[in-house]
What does this fold into?
Amino acid sequence: MRVALMTETFLPDTNGVVSTLCRLLEHLQANGHEAMLFAPHDAPASYAGAQIIPLAGMPLPMYPDLKFTPPQFGITAQLRRFKPDLLHLAGLVALGPTGRYVADVLNLPLVGAYHTDFPAYSTHYGLGWLKSTAYSYLRWFHNRCGVNLCPSSATIADLRAHGFRRLRLWGRGVDTVRFHPGHRSEAWRRSVGAQPDERVLLYVGRLATEKRVELLVEALRQTENARLVLVGDGPARPGLEHAFRGLPAHFSGFLRGDDLAAAYASADMFVFPSDTETFGQVVQEAMASGLPVVAARAGGVTDLVRDQVTGTFFEPGSSAKLGAQLATLLAMPERYQAMGRAGRAAAELRSWPSVMDELLGHYTRVERRWRRPHLRRRAASL
It folds into this structure.
């Protein structure tokens, strides 16, 4: 199979979309498929045997990991030469209409992957009045797709309520070798300032308004003998550093590879206040590392965490409820350690190869259905 993909974020960016695309390209190569990826111009020239076609773009003001990539010349010609069997739209925003246009011109089936809850983000950035428009815009090109792959049941329910069609659940895998409790390091704990009697709370993710990291300020004030480590970076970091001043908090910036694995495994508990996650890959990584999870009861995270088994939930947006959950769990080490072991066992069932084989099955079904002329005409009219 020859697969073309479009994305607005790729290496050197670090996020869930990029991780998933890297795994996908590796899986396609390992199974004898050919791939071409359209990505922002700062991406490498190739990855896992796939040629990467650079696209001009500029970072979105509210979400620099994604690039505003307007329509531009050359995409149709490149695809015509590559002759793909289908086109995969990987979490597109600005490039969505371009993807639909070139698919119509070249008579290609489309597969859509919904990665980021931009309608919800509009509220966090004071643009709530755009929420309905955002749904309408995204629905226009997603409903041209033969299947729309959603990372969680919460995402499916939300999109279905807003008129999106052909929705299917497609989760994510986790690397249980890289993310493993065996990577725990006392040296790492000392490096972040943890004292022998302190428990280390870990947050991993973008430091941005929509992640609700500010809730951890008041929660940390309510928590005794605990130190918070924040792994990641983003536009909210200066304000957060000011808000955490005087509290036992450490900002590590972005970590990758073995450094990130050591951070997970060396902590005692994972905290995740975001209420806009379509999935929550960092939650899976924390579970694979043997950490109990305290998370907002919202979005895709509710598919990953079993309440009172692998972690606990708190009311979204409530720093008081978050602090109370942390205090309760930290007072019961045996209980939260058992949750961490249960989380590790759950993560071991979610391998990347099986997740990617499931995606290839979607590819095959969409491509076969597209050959039926009446379905093709119907999709083109939407």
